[in-house]
Design brief:
This protein is an alpha+beta fold and 163 residues long. 44% of the residues lie in helices and 20% in strands.
Length: 163
């Protein structure tokens, strides 16, 4: 958050304050808070303190948050991701909570990437702790096993005993 102070003088000819510099300044910013003080000693003045953020930084954060994880997945992974989202929406509706309380999109995407086959592996997803695994783990693992095939990421296949 940044601060900026403006002092606007009263103009007798326009019978008001020229706020153009202020409007130009805030055109590309998000105003978080402002405070104003009026003074009328010699010349009437309006002093304004603005707390603001630039919209560019807000937009870049918003874009980073809203990147669709589906873009990084192949067809089978997209289907699994969509299935997890559909399950999450239904479960959240039944429980009367927002879907992100069960798992956010980033957590669902991580599940697709690591392809967990056990509750222990599912616990590697940040924010998915014991309580969520106990409550939702079996359902998540069932959806993943139904939609994903092949070797789970990060697991090596054993060829059995060597002779």
């Amino acid at each position: 958050m940044k601060l900026k102070v403006f002092t606007l003088r009263f103009s007798a000819s326009t019978e008001g304050f020229d706020d153009k510099p202020l409007r130009d300044f805030i055109a590309d910013k998000e105003v978080i808070e402002f405070r104003s003080t009026f003074s009328s000693r010699k010349h009437p003045c309006l002093t304004i303190l603005i707390a603001y953020r630039s919209l560019e930084s807000l937009e870049s954060r918003r874009v980073a948050r809203q990147t669709d994880p589906r873009l990084e997945f192949d067809g089978v992974e997209k289907e699994a991701y969509d299935a997890l989202r559909a399950w999450r929406a239904a479960a959240a509706k039944v429980e009367g909570i927002p879907p992100y309380m069960i798992a956010n999109n980033r957590q669902l995407a991580k599940m697709i990437r690591i392809k967990p086959t056990s509750r222990e592996t599912l616990g590697r997803v940040e924010g998915i702790g014991e309580a969520k695994i106990a409550k939702y783990g079996d359902q998540v693992l069932e959806i993943l096993s139904k939609h994903l095939s092949g070797t789970p990421a990060g697991c090596e296949q054993s060829e059995g005993p060597q002779a």
